[in-house]
Amino acid sequence: MDALIKRIITSQLIIYIFRCIIGFVIGYELMMNYPKYDLFWVLLSIILVISPEGKDSRRLTIERVKSNLIGSAVGLGCEFFNDKPTIYVIIVGIIITSIICYVLNVMNMARVAIVALLIVLLQPHLSEIELTPIFRAGTVVLGCIIGFSITLFSSILIRRLKKHYKIIES
Questions:
Q1: 140 in Cβ contact with 120 (< 8 Å)
Q2: CB 116 within 8 A of CB 141
Q3: Coiled coil located at which positions (predicted)?
Q4: Which sign, positive or negative, has the C-alpha torsion 96, 143, 105, 53?
Q5: In Å, how far from its chain's centre is CA 139?
Q6: Confidence grade of residue 95 (pLDDT, cut at 50, 70, 90)
Q7: Would you put residue 74 in left (φ > 0), alpha (ψ -120 to 50) or beta?
């Protein structure tokens, strides 16, 4: 049994699959339990934020959260200036998102930021509520928080197990 546990806690693939399954189940349950809300974006953001285990796991997750927040904020800004985004508004949003990612040194996560931007801007509004873009940005943020929490708490558990089994991290 010890050998199996050691194999599991040192396998990036198993850890990543485990995190993704936990994230999927949480996001899916939220979607199913609150069907009148557009919570698919929570699920998508959870999966986008989760990182495999490794020495940079937390840093990557934090960068993905930042990127999601950047894209959501830029998307909200674009919605504020033009509530019916045109192709030109979206292009400007992509440019602004990319520049902010560059300035904040998270260019490796710019694609995540652009996905968040597109979630806020392009997804058709399923309700007549004018606050839908704000709600959608909130769902992206909620997904980020959940995904970050999964990565953080599983990292803590894995580190404790590695310490218990005297596995030296490289």
A1: yes
A2: no
A3: none
A4: negative
A5: 10
A6: very high
A7: alpha
